[in-house]
Structures are given as C-alpha cells and as structure tokens.
Amino acid sequence: MKALVTGSNGFIGSALVERLLKNGIEVNCLVRRTSDLTYLQNLPVKLSYADLRDASTLRAVVEDIDMVYHLAGVTKARNREAYLQGNYVSTLNLLQACDQYSAADLKFVFVSSLAAAGPSSADKPLKETDAANPISVYGESKLRAEEAVVQYAKHHFASIIRPPVVYGPRDRDVFVYFKSVQKGLILLLGKGTQPVSLVHVDDLVEGILLASTTVANGKIYYISGDGTYNWQIIGRSIAAALAKKPLTLRVPLWLLKLTAFMSVSAAKLANKPALLNWDKVAEMKQAAWLCSNERAKKELGYKPQIDLSTGIQRTAAWYKSMGWL
Asked: At residue 231, what are phi and psi to the nearest 5 degrees?
C-alpha cells in the first residue's frame, strides 16, 4: 500500500507519516523546495516536490497511489485570495489530479477544520448534520474545499475530517500558551470560560486512519477528544504539568482588538501574514467552539484514548526535552 501525505512536514502531517510507516505503509510526502523537512529527515519516506497551487506538477505525484491524506493548507494569510488559493484552489487541483490520474479505488481523506462549520452554542456541540456557518475567511476557504471534496465523492471514495483545537508534541499554536504559563501567566480573553473541544494529535491521527478504512462517500467526521474545556481549565492543567503557580491575567476584548490592529499593520509593512489577525479575533470572541464525536464513534469505531491531563503532561515533557521550554 502506498500513501501520499500533503502537509507531511507539519505538526499533524509528520505524526500521521510516522504512524503510517509504523503500520507498514509506503509513504510519499508531497513537499515544496522551500519546506522545512526537520520532522521527515530520518524517516524512510519518498519526497515528491510539487506545488498544490500548480496543477501541472501533480500528475506524477498521484499516480500509483492507494491513499491520499490531504492535510496541507494555510492557517495565516495576507488576504482572502491567499486563503482561497492555499486551501480551496490547492484542494481542487489535487482532486482533479486524483480524478484524472489515480486508480478508481483511490481513498481520499481531507483534513479540514472546525472553523469550516463555525462556532457552536455554549451548551450544544455541533454535529455533522448542522448547517455550516464559518465566521472567518479561513473557515470559509476550508468550507469551499470541503464542498469540492463532496463533489469528488459522488464518484470516488472520500471523507472529511473536522478537528477542533489540536495539541501535542511539535504543535506551535497551543505552545504559545505553554510558554506563557512557563513565564508565570495564564492569559484569558475575558472570563476565560469559552467552552472548547480539544483533541490530542495521536487521537486525531487515529481518527484520520479510521476514516480511510470506511467507505464514507463524502461524509464529514468531527474527530475530537471527550469532554468540554475552557482556557482557564487548560491553563491550570498546563500549570500542573509544569509545576508552576502562575498569575491569571484577563485580557479585555478592546485590548485584543488593539493588539490585532498593531499586528495587522506591522504585517502589511513587512508583506507577511499577521500572527494575530481579525479572523483570529472573530474566532476568539465567539460563545463556544464545541463539536460532537458521536458519529465518529458510531460509524468509524473511533475511541479517543488521551485525556487532557495525560495529553498536557506528555506535550509538556516533549517541549522540555526539545528545549522549547
């Protein structure tokens, strides 16, 4: 069996690659010439250099492949067009290449995001049957990519994974929170009680693999850990793992908006994506980001194994071992 993994050099992608290799599957990693290959350097994988934004480079990559795991995308971009190019157009190009040049029984799994569905209410996790209502350009671009996968799935095997917040070794987003706690601060937006769903990267990888073994015909699956959390609870769990007693600092929305304005302004001058943009502000001020993993449990046999405390402890230990903390 041969698998193609896009986004293979990233946080989630590299964890998936390692798991596929452990399962005895040959792995072809789609990368660009400028990709950081740190997490792939010592792995027995084939590197295929191509650009998802250029459909002409993809034929040789998808031929003689049994499974495609499409994780590549952009989470930060300078403008709406860049989001669409990085998430929607890239996915469409890959789907078209698979349709034209891959075997008819190819299995395609697209890793999207909870952002494609939008926020939930504080007391009702989203289900896959709920209407999507993205509130960010990033979420919109992911939803359009999902719609392309659904069209492709009318004639091919394809499924869609929507993870919530993902954490674990190699992650750099939630790592910012670890670093803050290490320095003695738990930073909270407002009261810090916004309910969120979380998933450890190892549980997410398990869900992705399960989705490639079940004929889904374009179905969407939320792959999430069990339980509901908020950033106050998460901060305390990190503090326990780091043996810290941090102060809690509540950040008012106006200060977050001011910080975003400064970040966006500086990014425009540097012609780079902003680390904190208006999309992120819009997402952070929502009532909740909850999703239900019941369909994944029922139809895929998915069973999350890593609870928050264990996952945070393992992640903290990895950060320490790598000198990140």
From this structure: -70, -15
Residue 214 corresponds to which tokens in the numbers above? 């079940």
User: Per-residue confidence of the chain (325 residues) as pLDDT tens digits?
Assistant: 999 999 999 999 999 999 999 999 999 999 988 889 999 999 999 999 999 988 888 999 999 999 999 999 998 888 889 999 999 999 999 999 999 999 889 999 999 999 999 999 999 999 999 999 999 999 999 999 999 999 999 999 999 999 999 999 999 999 999 999 999 999 887 677 889 999 999 999 999 999 998 867 889 999 999 999 999 999 999 999 999 999 888 876 767 677 766 766 776 677 777 666 777 777 778 889 999 999 999 999 999 999 999 999 999 999 999 999 9
Is the Cβ–Cβ distance between 109 and 69 less than 8 Å?
Answer: yes
Task: Say if 310 falls within a structural domain.
Answer: no
* 166, 199 Cβ separation under 8 angstroms: yes
Count up the domains in the chain and report the number. 1
- Domain residues for 72? 2-168+198-226
